[in-house]
Amino acid sequence: MRSPLVLMVAALGAVNCAPSSSPATAPAMGLTDAAIGIAGRPPLRVVTLTPAPISGPIGDSVIVTARATDARGHTVSSPSVTWSTRDTTVATVSATGVLHLRRKGSTQLLATASGITDSAAVAVGATTAASSPTTGASIVASVHLSATTATLTQGDTTTLTATVRDTAGAAMSGQTVTWSTSNAGVAKVKASTAKGALITAIAAGSAVVTASSGGKSATATVTVSSPKHVVTGGETAKSADGFVETIGVATHISYASAATYATVLRPLLIQSGVRYIRDGAVGVSAQLNELATHGIHSTVVMDPRIGINPATVVDSIITPVLNSIIAVEGPNEWDLKPDLKWEGQAFPAGERSFQSELYTAVKSASNSAIRDLPVLAPSLGRPGNSSILGSVPCDEGNLHSYQGGSLPDDQLTTRWIPSALPVSGTKPIVVTETGYNFAVGVGAAGQPGVSAAAAAKYAPRVYLEYYNHGIARTHLYVMYPDAQWGLIDQNGRPRAPYYAIQNTISLLSDPGSHFTPGALSYSIDGAPSTLHHTLLEKRDGRFYLILWLNASSFNTFTHTDLSAESPVTISFQTPVSRVKTYLPSQSSDVQSTVDAPTSMSVNVPDQALVLEITPK
Question: Is residue 603 part of a domain?
Fold first, then answer.
């Protein structure tokens, strides 16, 4: 239920009160139909005077005005107020609300509206005011702003100044000016001087900035537009295939039976186009080597729980899969298992010892191909434990940066990437596990589940966000057929995110010799702050401008899918012969084709929108 609305009296001036723009359609809780009043308008409920008490010297004058509200919580425009004082020898008040302080003493100011009265104490001091109330010199008559409108782009700033004038029209000095904004989410106001304020454009929309002094006010309407994404001199693209090279999945081949591997996991891995997997090597060397013949190579986890001993790891584990392996990874999430030990020591000392021995074994191998293998730091289940583990010998950092059902880049720069610093310093980072589970309403491993449709939107976004932040390779968890986490479900059927990954790789794959990508000159009008993008190029000169909104695609509280989109206009300074659009999270099909555009309008959704741009 809303609080009763209030009739307010402001000292030293008037407050302009506009009527409500959206009148109520039903009575407030507890009111009978008879109490609603004429034309469905509830009567006033409360009258309150502010400020209270009022004080000043003999001869001073104070202008009082009213703001009224009814029982429904709506502002009442121009309420009929009767003013009076209990002792007219101390202070009198005119019918228009000018309070005159006559002699030293005290009294009460009364305001009555619709039969409801409230009072405020009035104290009059002995000192005579510097100016007579009859001249009006001490009364603020108006406030003027340096501008009544301002048009800004998100992120811009401007300064508004206020001039306070008396009844004679003269500028007044020493008056305090109070600044406010109707929408701080659009325009933020920070008073910089007594009569000036800095206005900062926060987001697209409009807001009314108000400057008040002595009960008078002036307003300026601030309109904020989304920034134009302008690339001065063109944006240099990155290699499309270089992005594909960062896409990986975790697999758990050792969990699969021979039949499941042969009929489900192996063919779907090959079909996906994924080139990199992360798995163990004990008992699956034949499978890893076979996958390597299809261009799928492995980061192999080395953990004493699966029988790995650094003293024998080179000959027994690495050498048999040397045609497949591209990296060696330290132990997996030991910080979550206090019972795990190496040479009698638990985390962190035991893990440090194992990692040091593993690193030494790899780097001292007689085979240079083994020595050249990068050794990843151990993974941690909780990023805060990185400072406990501390620095260990490694060539690359390692993260298990799960989003917990949230945005693909959730805490990536504020929590996850910083957590690698105590362990691996500024070395490149590989994310060996990340992603979403499908146990909607139940969750898995303490993380809320999302729908397969939402995960399909998120999957390309995860790879793109991590790529944009310099992650060397990202492995989504997990390709293994699994009810909770599997990109393949427990019945061996690919889920929607599997196809999203497959479509993304198919669209952007461009293997071949090294080349230097060029630049695309373009601009985007109407880009919201949530618009993210990546610009890639293939060897044949086609650019791939990928746009997406960094918005949620699933509500983990209501367990419902969400969608968002924002219209933008893309202008091309580089001459373009054709633009095709794709939505790989939905389909591999072309969504639209535009020939020779100089500009085009698109709706950017909460999934990757790929613009294939063929220059002239």
Answer: yes
